[in-house]
Structures
1.
Amino acid sequence: MKKLIYFFLFLSPLFLKAQETFPENGAPHEKEGHFAFTNGEIHINSDQVIKDGILIIKNGKIVDVGDDLTIPASAIKINLRGMHVYPSFIDLQTSFGIPPAPSPHRPSKEQLLSSKKGPYSWNESIIPEYRSQDEFIFDENQAKKWRNIGFGTVLSHRRNGVVRGSGLLTTLDNSRPHLSILNPLASSHLAFSKGASNQTYPTSLMGMIALIRQLYLDGEWYKIQGNEKETNLSLQAWNELQNLPQIFEVGNKLEVLRAAKIAKEYNKIYIIKGNGTEYQRADAIKKTGMPLIVPVDFPEPYDVEDPLNADLVSLEMMKHWEWAPSNPGILEEKEISFAITSAGLKEEKKFLTNIRTAILNGLSEKTALDALTILPAKWLGEEDRLGQLQQGFLANFFISDHPIWDEEAQIIENWIQGNQYKVQDRPNPIVGNSYNLLIGENSYEFTVPEKGEKIKLIDEDSASLTGEISMEFNRVNIIYSTPQNEYIRLSGIAKGDRIEGDALLPSSESVNFVATLQKDNKSEKVKERTESPESDKTPLLYPFTAYGRQEIPEQKTYLITNVTVWTNESESILENTDVLVQDGKIKDIGSIRKPRKAVEIDGTGMHLTPGIIDEHSHIAISRGVNEASQASSAEVRIGDVINSEDINIYRQLAGGVTTSQLLHGSANPIGGQSTLIKLRWGMTPEELKFEGADSFIKFALGENVKQSNWGERNTVRFPQTRMGVEQVYEDYFTRAREYGENKNGTKPYRKNLELECLLEILKSERFITCHSYVQSEINMLMHVAEKFGFRVNTFTHILEGYKVADKMEKHGAAGSTFSDWWAYKYEVIDAIPYNAAIMNKAGVNTSLNSDDAEMARRLNSEAGKTVKYGGLSDVEALKLVTLNPAKMLHIDDRVGSIGIGKDADIVLWNGPPLSNFSRAEKTFIDGRIYFDREENEKKAQQIKEERARLIQKMLQAKKGGKNVQKPQLKKQKEYHCETIGE
Amino acid sequence: MTKNYKILLAIIISSIIGANNTVTAQGSPADSQSLSMALQGGTIHIGNGEIIENGTVVFEKGLITYVGDENQQAEKNIDVSGQHIYPGLIAPNTRLGITEVDAVRSTRDFAEVGQYNPHIRALIAYNTDSDIIPTVRSNGILLAEITPSGGIISGQSSIVQLDAWNWEDAVYNSGSDEYKPAGIHLNWPSPYKYDRSINATTANDSYKENVDRIYKEFAEARAYQKIEGTPDPENLRFEAMAPVFDKSVRVFVHVNHKKGILDVIQFGESFGLKIVITGGNEAWKVADYLAEQEVPVVINATQRLPQSDDSSIDQPFKMASILEDANVLWCFSHHGSWEQRNLPFQAGQAVGFGLDQEAAIRALTLNTAKIYGIDQTLGSIEKGKDATIVVSDGNIMDPQSSIILHAFINGRTIDLDNKHKELYRKFGSKYGILD
């Protein structure tokens, strides 16, 4: 039998704890905040639960917790029968109480340096000196939103810049900030986001990464010797932040890997705040060992009723809708540590609902609780006072009417530092009860509804009357109408098993009524789930997009028989020949008996060539191909921003491409470091990299670097003429030489990643691919190189290469050009399609490249054009896109020809490979079939079916009352040399 | 060295030394045909889907007088055995001669200010002396549509032949002296638009409004034509639209999405216009309907990327064969100016993905002529038609074999030299690599 104690007294105002530094105005009115919570189920943490426990708090802290405690007489007792008590949640990713940074504006001319006054970083997006504590103002409206969904403590920082400064840790207790702020300097924050900076640098993600790298080095330098040379408050602040938890916000799963890579380089642990797509690369993320913060802002289904608009939504987005709630569960399964944040949710009420959905999709209740309590507390070094309901911990806990992960659970109150915050009225204790009602002679049965006010009074003949019930404290009102359409009003008091009071009849008379408890439904309630776990999900794909694959293709032994082999070796073309591929290599060529385990591929009527190598590509790059802000950006690395999920990788495999050099763009004379990949569709960015390849860098000349076609805004950056371009090189190489001398000396020096890179060029440890057009500038760069004692490895574009082919040959430079582009800007006015043939014949190692995601799909027939324009032989023409670029990239010992021992990077064509009537049937890399035309047709069919299935599911969701979002098309940006911005 | 190349080299070098063992090009523009000519022994690709092996074409005074496999002699006979004879290719929807260097503003003459510019004539800006034109002509493209762009109605386009003294000389009017545009170009509003706030494309909420505006403009233009007497004041824009309402001038509607294509067909019907879908990236989705409605399509370049990540990776390559199989009247096109020299390779790309060889040729010649209403005189090698013919050493649609040996426009022997060949000769001889 339960007592009707209305324990949810609203204890107002907040009790004010001792506040020693404050003067008193009048007699002090201090309260101890001494409470004893009894009979509730106390979840000390995810492992320890005390049924019918007692929790005693005083002065904002937990004094004791247990199941058999003496309750001090001075404690206010609160009965929590049927209730659950949990440690309040902790959110690591908020900007609570912090004013946002001003929006960036676009200056009328490029802003090359920081506009911030004072001894701070040269770059506006590096703001380690920013302290959240300086601007923090407790915002009750915001606080309430978090408290209502169970949070008691938040870490707050300003989301502005790549290096964002420090965060502060505060509870959501709105008494005095002196008490609620637990740690004013709690964390250090970073992000791949430029924020409000108006400065040009960085214009790309790789620029941001370079900035962070150099900052670590500068921090060290400043500690040791830099502070004697200059005062730099940013570096000083940066150094001070290093011992704090480092929280890094990223935009997607690949950025998790990128942040983790930086962390490893500088021996850091980042707590990485992801965007909920981590499950798509969970294994790779697991390997980083970095903890995560993940959101639960699962996407709403798309409104796919209009079939034409539905076409906008990609399979990736549809599938993500289906898989997103599994993200936490998959991370748990992979044993990746993670905290959960409410960040990103449009409606905070979705927070608990979405976690419950995640639980239906594989997340355990224990991990869910840990991710909101004990883990974030630990990461902040607050594990001794936050995240659990232990003695001595802060009295931060919330009370719910059911176990919190039950669908019907509601948070009733959230207590923070011993202060009570009501979230909603606790359901009246009589809710759910069934009563037998006696009014005079009449007898009815009714049940107090869980929701709403409607009740039915059922008489002994099972006839029913409808009425309404309302309650306040222990007063109960019932109104119902008789069959004669007269209203009868009851007004009574609930006490124990009975509700007693007066019934006011239509006639103005009143009689007594008594309602006696029949049964207490609540205790019998069985847990019910309305939603069943998603069971019809199709497997994850790598990458998580159309044409992604479930597994990396197997490295089998293949025997390709009776095929025409374009070897690119001394024997040139071999007809009716067999090629054996084993362990990823070309094992044998000739007339071969099929090894037992080999898979035979009939090559009759077909042609086998080395895989196409695209010397100049900008596919598979995330967030900017140009760090376009300065004349030199030698410090940036395309290898940092490889996008393994780009569909163009797959499309180009279908064009026979197996290796691509991913180049920085051509926006500045000294661009960024290149990376070489094999198109291993499905693998991670690091796994795409061509192992052991030499290092290259992109340089550029001409109109792009002097910003000729960028409009009037861009007329301030040096250089603006070809004259200036030469001096950029003279200047930088001179500085690099001096840097090298310093480095070899005995004095300490500031390590500079830009000059390190240039020094590698001087030492011929890194090689230049230079975007170039007209003969004067080509000539110039060869002179600069010779003066500084190195050689230009490759001129790319090189549309006037035919004018200086003799000089290039003498210098030893290779030329990688377009087959027939011209007339798109002034510097290509003399470009001719005979260029490749002339250079080739003049002894220059020549290749054809794409610089274009579309053209790269048909470089074979682009090579065919040199038969028409300049009369190259078929064999020479094919070499332009295979062996010659392999030589340029110093990988001809591995690829570029079909010879025994070479990598099995080969393409099987259904006709002569230079013809545009022919197409690649199979593309092998490392002896694995990465593209197969038959399999491709199957995939296309699967995509159709999969879309249809998901569309049905979304339609059902919409018809079932789910909110939907507008269909949308998200496209990976296509980059060319001159693309500026992300 | 390949056989093809030897022939080509012979032509290139012949220009230097003045000797000529084939046909004497008289420089550009060429004189009108004086001697009757016979091309003997080649494979004739008529342009209508048929071929004649080992055939002969005879032409006189600019017109074709014989096509067949009999031995015919003329005043001048050219042995083209082993070679391929095609109707001169026609390039639709180009910027040839109205832009020289894309990045240099002063050479860009293709887009005028304003939304409704039906009175604008691209022909007026057409520069017959553009250095680009000979590089296109020497790949077998002998006619092109000079097309304005920008705004909603971009203006009037014209078909020109690519060997002319000036625009008057260039314009191709099928024998008529009166100026008549090839078409009026209308840019249909996009049903989708990019939303910066979410970095994605969504349905365009103002699409219907934008379409309504076009309806209104056309309704007013049509009403204007019915004003009795001379309108006061005269509306030059509406005047220019008169011929679209009597169907004597086609409306080329640039539209790519299925939704837009369906709406354009409805639009054309409600104003009684002769509509040509231009671009039509998603035309393959409504191929049967286009065939049924007899709406022709000028398709965008074959060599482009698929529409979305989910699209079939070969979808742009396969588009042509889908339209062909559905019996749509369609033709190839390529964007821009200098790019036109790659028009035949757009067709070749489609051949690799299921399109019949001769159907591909038809979509570079006769289909194009039909779509532009000039098939009475052009587009195929048939008796009575213009002797606008090109001879290629190998298949004209495959870059490695597309080596153009002869070209004739109205029987005139066309100069196949160009700036690029000149520079090749100049620097090739510097390095001694021309032998």
2.
Amino acid sequence: MLKYTIRRIIGMIPMLLLISIVVFLLAKAMPGDSLSGEIDPNNTNPEYIAEMRERLGYNDPLPVQYFDWIKGFVQGDFGKSTRYKMPVSDLIMERIPNTVFLGVSSLLITYILAFSMGIFAGRKPYTIGDHVIGGLNYLGLAIPSFIAGVFAIYIFSFNLGWTPYAGSVEVGLQEGTLEYWISRIHHVIMPAFVLGALATASYTQFLRNDIIENSRKDFVRTARAKGTATTKIYNVHILRNSIIPLITFLGFDIATIISGAIITETIFTYPGIGQLFLNSVTTNDYPTMMAITMLLSLLTLVGNLIADILYGVVDPRIRLD
Amino acid sequence: MVNVTTNAVKQQEKPINMSPFAIARRKFLRNKLAMVSSFFLLAVVIVSVLAPYITTQDITKVNIGSMSLEPGGEHVLGTDKSGRDVFTRLLYGGRISLLVGVTCTFLVILFGTVVGSIAGFYGGFVDGLLMRFTDFVLNFPFLVFVIVLNTILFGLVNGLWVLIGVISLLSWGGVARIVRSKILAEKENEYILAAISIGCKPSKVIVKHLLPNVLSTIIVQATVTFATLIVAESALGFLGFGVPQSIPSWGNMLSASQEADVLRDKPWIWMPPAIILTITILSINFIGEGLKDAFNPKSNR
């Protein structure tokens, strides 16, 4: 297993280099100084620009520039935001807790909903309850998250007044107090639900089908013959076997949450990484934009790597090839 | 006895020598949900294509006299904040959304099939190289890269075609993987060996022998891709990075809902595109499910 994991991680390195080269070339194709953000875009004096370009090494050959950039990036130097006039790394660190909080809440909601619905539908297949859950799943898979988000705000925030429609916490609350955390949860619950809808639907569907399939297997018949209670058979014998393949979904969830967060955070004006990214695009804040692009690509890669490794954990046959 | 005779009658009704595609067509035509969805989709397509003949309203003209009118009267679905008729924009928006969806799907399926079938047929080094390339493309976070590429290319070429190109460029990976795995399984059959041994060129083996046998997978995959890409286009439009704002598309119309007052008080501006988009995607999904079911020899319905 260790050997397989190490091989996977080593196999990721060329991909990482290729992606960083692509991001670097894209940054070079952007107008202006999109890597360090040191050149003031408002100062159009050609002498100033020429001097800054020389000092920042923009006249060096591309490979040299690439290595300078990647060296800085690895050490956490992401350049300076042209809009906020501060290091991009500080900007990102400010927003990351919000996005992580959103992602974790969304995963929690997904797990709670998917497990209760999946277990119920799997235990009583082809009943009314199962069909209702199946229908809900279908909607969860088909309705795009931005439409779900817009409707959620319209119904729950504006018409019912249950949840706030913007921000991550109420202004003026002391950090660390109970009210502060309650307010944060209150703010995150709607976006987290919308973000998790797609994953919930696929988890539920998978769990249901797997439970039905497992309930026909011999070990279940043996358990029944022994006289084990039905509840125990479902909750212990079958569920344990059905959960294992679900583990592999986790890696893909990371990638889904990254793409989903951009949309969800924009709809709910939730101050996270995704919103920062879109704002940086609209305000032409290229250094921020490229740093986030690189970070999100990195996270997607790590997500895929985790999925790969978990596949190996669950299915020993994969480790061999 | 009665049972036997009814069975015999049923057997006679069914032509015995049906081709797989004829069986699939028969199954599909009997699938009510898929048929209703097909008719709905067809209606949307026809209405969108014929938009200039259905309404005579100007879609670009900003009309200050009739801003944010409620539905009813002259404007069936009301007007938006610039005084443009929502119904007219909905029809024209459908044109763009469907055009982007169809074009991207065509490109994605074409490229994915070419890469997947070449990788699957040749195997070995070619396969390794092409599949690493596919992995590489699949590792990009889709939305992030579409937005970045769009920003760079914006203004260089007509915005609509940039969007189509960028979306297609980043989405073919999944199709390539699926086609490859199907081709890998299919080429183990002896008729392929026979075709190669009588001297068929590789291109001919792929096009004439392999592709027709994986066509059902490709068709099903195409419907799934179509739905996904329409969602992608409208999501980008919603965020303000899709088709240029001057062209109406369902996503662009939806982006009006980002203004709180529109979202709260003027639902007639954003609800029609949201609803029509959802129903369109649902019906494409139902058609896809229907096709999958129809092509599956194990399902008996």
